[in-house]
Structures
1.
Amino acid sequence: MFHQLVIFIRRYVNLLLRIPMPTLASGQGELKRCPQLLKQNKCANVFIVTDKTLSQLGITKQLTDYLDSEQLSYHVFDEVMPDPTIVLIEKGVTKYKQHQCDSVIALGGGSVMDCAKAIAACVVKNKNITQLSGLFRVRKKLPSFIAIPTTAGTGSEATLVAVVTDPIKKQKFTVIDPCLVPQFAIIDPLLMVGLPAKITAETGIDALTHAVESYIGLHATKQSKTYSIDAIKRIFQYLPLAYKNGDDLTARTEMSLASYFAGIAFTRTSIGYVHAIAHQLGGYYHIPHGLANAVLLPHILDFSYDNAYKKYAEIAYQVGLVAADESEIVAANRFVGTIKALNITLNIQQSFPELKSVDIPILAKRAISEAFCDYPVPKLMPVKTCENLLSELLICR
Ligand SMILES: [Fe+2]
């Protein structure tokens, strides 16, 4: 009863909340728009948050060449690692202040964007990131912020959340505030061409999970469902193509838009158990977020089936998996079957070699606690069921 009440109240708070949308520039070569955007916003010294891989691939240099050509100053902070930690964010804040920057560019995947958002939030609030953990603790405009995703999955370029890792507690926490939605998103598929097939697959399923968890969750609205369906349709069609041929620019473009639209959807509605469990696996074992989601998604769809099959069927009809005259059961089964088949096409593993049975009780407890009241799931999962689900992923190794 308490849970239902909280979910009900949250749904109406969500509806009242004004979540901004980034100004979007999308298309091949759009990276070159950066100097113009910075100048329009009177920014002269930008803090570029990225990672070593992108620097080594020369992608960071592509960006700084554009900035050099317009005599814009910058400082490159390319120390971001997967699952950004409190210490890393503190280091970024110190560098930002030391170099007296006035704006931020996040160039990279989800970890880079989350790290950049967290740094920007700490700078404007003059607080450390743990003090900003939770809902609506920022409430202050960030410096001009341009998000440039180099993977198609996280959707962080459109979301109000930053995920931070506390390595001591082996746990992730979130900073959630509409102020964290980037002011600009530049989606340039040329930046994704070199992405390895495995990362293409895992990040692509992350985007799919955002769209699906948003759609089947109790906070979904007509608007969020439209964005989810758009994303799911593109992912079913183009993720196998992007996986098979990373140079397929049409597939890269469609996947980058799918990721963005899925981000728009879930940032207005929240996520579900796939993410709740994946966050624990990331915090404990550093299992990549997209991979954890990909392995878990079919299991959670099976678990939620009896409460959510009508929504599975709606998705199947709308993305064209079945004809309109097929029964809901046939449609729902086709949807779940399509996701399982997609995992096979993308060579997604079926278990987690890192997972230790001794850790399962704490992982399950934390996952259920993360989701409780915060994630509007279609069916509540007892801790014991979550333990059993994780045990299956251990046994079928
Ligand atoms: Fe995700």
2.
Amino acid sequence: MTHILHRQIDHRYPSAVRGSGIVLRDADGKEYIDASGGAAVSCLGHSHPAVLAAMRAQLDALEYAHTSFFTTPVAEALADDLVAHAPEGIEHVLFVSGGSEAIEAALKLARQCFVERGEPQRRFIIARRQSYHGITLGALAIGGREAHRQKFAPLLIETHHVSPVYEYRERPAEESASDYAERLARELENKISALGSDKVMAFIAETVVGATLGAVPAVPNYFQRVREICDRHGILLILDEVMCGMGRTGTLYACEQEGVRPDMVAIAKGMGGGYAPIGALLISGEIFGSIAEGSGAFAHSHTYMGHPLACAAALAVQQIIRRDDLLANVRRQGAHLARRLGERFGNHPFVGNVRGRGLLQGVELVVDRGSKEPFDPRLKLHARIKREAMTRGLMVYPMGGTADGIRGDHVLLAPPFIADTATVDTIVERLGEAVDAATAPVT
Ligand SMILES: Cc1ncc(COP(=O)(O)O)c(C=O)c1O
């Protein structure tokens, strides 16, 4: 009998006791290849000696100092490091302890920024359906995952949603990718007009949609059109790179591949690689200036922001990624993973689409490839695939609701950046067996 309120109360979770590189071991000695980095977190794998050494050194010096009294050398060094490699225009960092906290801070900073600029009427946030921005009330409100939101709907702040970029299901064959981008841009523009362009404060999007759609990138020119529209109406562009950022797609920020300059970027997961809970909100010089020249303080803080141990872990993770040129490996192994997934699932009767960027790849399941009909959600195919994969010693990150928030299933893969070709081959082999086993009762 456990006293923990686990995610699924009736599920018996194996107990993880050791981790090394790309492998986790449970209390029974069974080993699992961590092909999802947990939830796209463990970018360096487990027990990296250099990260552990940096954390031990920080503990020996100072474990904690409250940010209302002190700054610390390690937090300053991490902020310098992040800003030095951040997208153009980003000049400051707010530290938090995870993705949802980074998103909550982004929403409140957007609001405070407009209040300080003398535009207090700006209060609307536009987000996209089938997105995930976190589980706290603000993040849940802007998220577009209906199954998550329904129970809590009466508690959620007003948010407005537009379509995601979801080529596989929503771009008809006769529409070009550029016409599709244009159609989505018009939808955003219409939404802004309907709300009143001087009343909208921010548009928020995952640069590459992670958990809810399963590694879906935008089409070319989409984000550039979004940026133009935001600029024209004085609206802030907030990118959620909690999952797709910090190297996961092959560049440090996914938005580098889109050629856009965000006003704020939320990061977490791969920032600390799972060695400590940490996230951050990266902030443009203009936004910082509005607060600095206004009240002089962002009305938002947490007890553990800038925790020295978490900062030491994140700084070491980011330095090792550069030292070992791991983003080159993300691009190399990402291409290999995409190729192997294509070979294994390209003609699979129940796989409709394989997509992704770098070491963030998704496989979407359908009952019929021609009509793209999703599986009956009551089958919980995604959960079956997870079970079958775990039986075979493979951690992947399957999810339901892909097609419309309720129906549809996909599997997300996000192996550590240290993955090699042989491991990628084993991942695809085991995933193939798991998908075959999970779909066998359906045939
Ligand atoms: C894109 C995105 N944003 C925000 C979050 C929330 O992060 P956290 O679970 O650390 O609160 C997640 C978590 O999966 C995410 O994928």
3.
Amino acid sequence: MTTGSLLTADLVIAVLAAGGWLGGGAASAARRRPLALGLAAFALLATLARAITITALARAGWWFAAEKVLIAAPLSLAAVAVAGPRLLRAAGDIRSVAVPLLFAGYATSGALLVTVLHGYPASAGAGLLTVAGVVAATAVSWRALGARPSRTVSRATLVVAVAALVTGTGLTVAPESVPDVPHDHGYRDARTVGEPTRRFTLTAGTATVRVGGRDVAAWAFDAQVPGPELTATVGDVVEVTLRNRDIGRGVTLHWHGYDVPNSQDGVPGVTQAAVLPGQEFVYRFRADQAGTYWYHTHSVSDVGVRMGLYGVLVVRPGPMTGLDVTVPVHTLGGRPLPAPRTERVEAGTPVRLRLINTDSTTHRYALAGTAFRVAAIDGFDLRGPTSLVDTAVLIPAGGRYDLVFNAPATPVALFVDGRVVYSTGEVSTATTTWPVLDPLHYGVASPAPWSRIDRKFTLVLDRGLDLHELLPRYAHTVNGAADPDIPPQVVRLGDIVRFTIVNRAQVVHPWHLHGHHVLVLSRDGKPAAGSPLWLDSFDVRPGEVWEVAFRADNPGMWANHCHNLAHADAGMTLHLMVS
Ligand SMILES: [Cu+2]
């Protein structure tokens, strides 16, 4: 069982336990004796079962098992201690166990709410608030059921509730000051890269595009989705003029995975202002790294990219040899792109398939009909990639894999989530049961290019209630805070920086640092054993712990965020300051 599925199991059992206690309480209040006893017994079993899931989580290396023990265990034990003996003694009036059972239900629900709503890091305030809530709810039920809590109990409840409210909501604590995010940088001016050798103009605008035989309202570059494919050769100076015709919420160009100077990175409010209708912005950078990349708007990026403001950027090391096919996968208006394409390819032709995931969630790719190698991931060549056959690859949001093979005499087909998107003829192969390549164990290892770590950061990815400007939202959080309240990471130019990224949530978070590629050190404590993996996009699945490192060699203020862009918009964005 993966840590992710253990987490889900634990959550389901916790919900069942809470439901059982509450249901049992309600049934006994209604004098439905068999039902009450049945539900209470069920809740008791579920509560005990959580001991098993929490132990399993601790053994799987789940970072927060101790916290579950601290919060869930005392409340569950209190629930069992209060409700258990009364149940055994409830020979007479079943109604007498209603309050204890309800108390148990409130206690388990409280622990559940702390886990789901409050998130990381657990605080004494949240604990106090929960206890106050449980006590208050019990007192209210007690009254409602006709009995009367004593004056002392009422007063104690009031005192605990007020104390918890004051400390729990942080009214006594001054808000932590967050350093200002500078919005203007004098770093490497784009003009110093030299005269452009490759010039492009992209005009962003609303458009209607045809997808799968249906008209879809889109936002597009040059009225097409994806936008025009930009190509260059290493050594070129690329200049792209971005114009905005009518995208009211503004547009920028971010060169995903391309480590351009900060002023060209296209993050509105950080490296430039969003380009509004009628305006333009000229990007210029040297194409010094060959590989498969893509570009997309970073202005209201969740909506903008989903609506179609993206395209492919390919930088080749020299003149093209063989067949070079780009496959940017996207979902537009609920329909998959690109449209399936078939072409005849002469046997023996070297083929490179550049697979690009421009969606916000993972896609599964399977190449049938030939052996192949994964030549590059996220634009960086792998070391000693071996031949693979009948093996699928999972590409995270924003990620790219280059698959290479020599065309066989028989047809090949590329499947994305079971759908053929590219083929050289008819292929009928079931690919859904194929094993998935683990890039951490593929290719030939080589020693890390550095022997020290200067700065270490831990990023705990989670969900939690966030009160930003008094508007409550269920944010995606990093270390318990949501954008713009996550303190920036400040490092010196040249520092070797290590990130430990922990996913405490129930969903995948594809992590993406701007301006740098990170070297994968380990996942779940196991060192990466294959070719060095220099990534700009990687899936941190529920329960996973990733250790990555990089040399902070690109000065400026860099976005560091989840590339599920809805998550990024809902708080999961912070900044790395390199100076
Ligand atoms: Cu995410």
